[in-house]
Amino acid sequence: xxxxxxxxxxxxxxxxxxxxxxxxxxxxxxxxxxxxxxxxxxxxxxxxxxxxxxxxxxxxxxxxxxxxxxxxxxxxxxxxxxxxxxxxxxxxxxxxxxxxxxxxxxxxxxxxxxxxxxxxxxxxxxxxxxxxxxxxxxxxxxxxxxxxxxxxxxxxxxxxxxxxxxxxxxxxxxxxxxxxxxxxxxxxxxxxxxxxxxxxxxxxxxxxxxxxxxxxxxxxxxxxxxxxxxxxxxxxxxxxxxxxxxxxxxxxxxxxxxxxxxxxxxxxxxxxxxxxxxxxxxxxxxxxxxxxxxxxxxxxxxxxxxxxxxxxxxxxxxxxxxxxxxxxxxxxxxxxxxxxxxxxxxxxxxxxxxxxxxxxxxxxxxxxxxxxxxxxxxxxxxxxxx
Length: 386
Prior knowledge:
This protein is mostly helical. It has 2 domains: about 10-45 and about 180-385, no CATH class; about 50-160, 3-Layer(aba) Sandwich (abc type-2 transporter like fold), CATH 3.40.1710. Helices cover about 65% and strands about 5% of the residues. It is built from 15 helices and 4 strands. It has helices spanning about 10-20, 25-40, 65-75, 85-95, 110-115, 130-160, 180-210, 220-245, 255-275, 285-290, 295-300, 310-320, 320-335, 345-365, 375-385, and strands at about 50-60, 80-85, 100-105, 125. A 4-stranded mixed sheet has the order 2-1-3-4, with helices on both faces. About 35% of the residues are buried. Its main location: membrane. It comes from Ottowia flava.
């Protein structure tokens, strides 16, 4: 059935009612957002690494280096599980997973630290697969070395009536906890918002295509897209407001900017989902075909690996996903206090994607006659009935 008299209002109201009345759409576009808002950051609640096992290689074997090892073991980040004199023995211990890393105290470190020689210090090797562990251990070793330098220099400084010329002040700007969740969760949130809205939009279009009731008026299409913007904006408000507050995620809440950036992002994602859904034989196939894209699209956002370090064709391909522009625009504005002018390139990309995907979706929804149900559709119906 083709709609010839339905306008914007009908498209908006009917789409919202269809979402509310369809269990799969509610699960995908509403409940999944709530679930992932708290499920994803749950493993990273304790963002500080505690008592990670380390092997100390003490090549000097002096009281000063033994004091360094003891001081390191007294920190909350590191537990010294062994002290050896040979680096190769420590490497073997790490390979056998007796420890997560190695702290090397080379020969001459005591004299070098006391004299303040440039380049003097310890070397640290940590399993790079654990971002939080690497940063925590590095900070612990740095703090211990600074304390030892201060202790070594204090007697001399007192003799000449001067303060110890060592002061270290660290003030993280955008990740106060220096934790993994505070770093990655804001980026993943944009991908979650994209995937849940895109899945739901594709399922909606696929269901209408299968039933032969795709809209045919521009007004009805715009109303359908507006309904998806309402749902997507509500999900974003939940993430950026309630979920970020509960999880204590760094945020600036520049509401005046988010008030128009969020609908732009939601409209782009909704248009893409509608366009893709018109090519799907059923709602079940839409979810089946689109779900495996989540991991790939995350790595293409530039959050895990910088876009400028990717092969150029891959970086260009990545920009076809609204989440890429979304992460590059929303994270600086929402977490770092940037202004829209600072991310104008990415907001412009979102606008271009909205135009492109909007034209694609409107042509598929309004300009192409719905395909008749085929064998695959009947197979899906039969399997569901069973």
